[in-house]
Amino acid sequence: MTLFLQELKRGRKVLLIWSLLVAFFVAVCILVYPEMKNMKADFSNMGAFSSAFGLNQFNFLTFFGFYGVECGMMMTLGGSLYAAFIGINIISKEEYEKTADFLLTQPYSRGKVAFIKFIAMQIQVILFNLLMLIAAIICMIIIKQDFLVREFYLIHMAVVFINMVIASISYSLSCFLRQNGTGIGLGLAVLLYFVYIVGNISNQKELFGKLSPFSLSDTADILTKHVLNGTVIIIWTVVSIVMVCIGLIKYVRKDIY
Amino acid sequence: MNAIELRDLTKSYGKSRGIDKLNLSVEEGEFFGFIGPNGAGKSTAIRTMLGLLRYQSGEGYIFGKDIRKDKIEILSEVGYMPSEVFFYPKMKVKQVIAYTAKLKNKKCVDEAYKLCERLSLDTTKRVNQLSLGNKKKLSIVIALMHKPRLLIMDEPTSGLDPLVQKEFFSILKELHQEGTTIFLSSHNLLEIQRYCERAAIIREGHIIACDYVRTLMHSTTKRITLTGDIDFTIDGMENLKKEDGQVSFLYRGHMKSLLKMLSEEKISDINIEDPDLEEVFLHYYKEGDEL
């Protein structure tokens, strides 16, 4: 518990800054929604741009269409950048800040240290998402929008899942690194998002969809099918578990210089 | 029981050597010195014992426990002071102490504060506000606060001023008297000579000498210093130096033969003594054979 709480304490400033930043943009989006209701034609006739964000497949200017695309994008991308940032540093930071000597000579197994850090990281990702959810609900109350709607929670569940996948993959890479890998982590999140966007404008949407966890946040899918894409969930859950296990095995056997 | 027992322990870094079939025994309760220059394998040996490095072959035991399988039990009985000291920079000293006590799951905060007082360490400062010397003091406190059975220290006194060094060794002597085994790795041979009972010299990854410090120094080799001049050489004579009317050399041979030669020379004074540990150390490193 000591190590777990310490990890949460160390990460609290980053959590607060990222949450406030992303929550601010989400809040602005929700609060301007009443002004945008009458602009449907403009959004659905923007060619590849509309396709990239799925605006041509559903009524974008229903509240949850708008929320899923605009706020969903901010939360998935913003949250994933945050998840990548904490994931890529949570293990390697001890090495490049040279505190690993202190931590790993305490009576804890290395596997336990790594596992506690993993849990602390995922808890921070969940806390981030909870803050987003609370911010969104407050703003929806302000604009008198009903939030007890299944699609709203499906959008948030998709965001949490994507953020946790990105955090897990970044964490596994962190187990291999000895230096600051922030660039690698953020790059990974952006790359997977880019794959999703490319998939949306290509003819191979099904294939590309499986190559990026971000496809789970496809608002068109959520609003038309009213469920999350099970195949994407299974693929990326397996990828995350395998990568985390590889990372843990590497870390347990790794030389600490 | 041996506090430390290493058998043919080998750790290499790819093609680079770390330690090569290292054998070492340290008895429980000993004040043991570990000597060697940079790159000899001292830190590799220590870090392998503590599980920070993964060895390729051999065996290692601390208090009879396997250094790989029983790592957690070992670490709860060991205090470690690394050569380079790093703590979480934004933490205050008192927070580092409290955090360490919780990690160790031992009620040792009071002991830590006593040590801080003896070493004049301000517990209200943040780690990033501490000088190198004060970081070293914090590292001493962290290593000693839980009264470990075995204390492993890697170059502990570099960066400490002489007064703190004196207090530090006085603390170590007290712990030693209470039964703590102390494993001191140091470049400072005077420290080893002054405080350690036994010492090992490591060269190129393996132990080339391990004995009581007084035995290492009281060897068949003697340091001979003469006032006057000599005009001969004899088998076993090394490092001959003539300076300001004085002649000095190391001699490893029959004393009778040397005295016979000297009796025919113009000398007014003679001093025969054991070489100091530094000379012993240099000898091992230059010659690579037994003294």
Automatic annotation (TrEMBL), chain A:
Using the record, list the residue span of the signal peptide; answer none if the entry has no such feature: none
Gene Ontology cellular-component terms listed: plasma membrane
Q: Which parts pass through the membrane?
A: 15-34, 46-67, 73-92, 113-143, 155-177, 184-202, 233-252
Q: Name one GO molecular function term.
A: ABC-type transporter activity
UniProt keyword terms in alphabetical order: Membrane, Transmembrane, Transmembrane helix
PANTHER family, A to Z: INTEGRAL MEMBRANE PROTEIN-RELATED, MEMBRANE PROTEIN
Name of protein: ABC transporter permease
From TrEMBL, chain B:
List the keywords (alphabetical). ATP-binding, Nucleotide-binding, Transport
Q: ABC transporter domain location, by residue? A: 4-229
The Gene Ontology terms for molecular function here are:
ATP binding; ATP hydrolysis activity
Please give the family membership noted in the entry: Belongs to the ABC transporter superfamily.
Record protein name field: ABC transporter (ATP-binding protein)
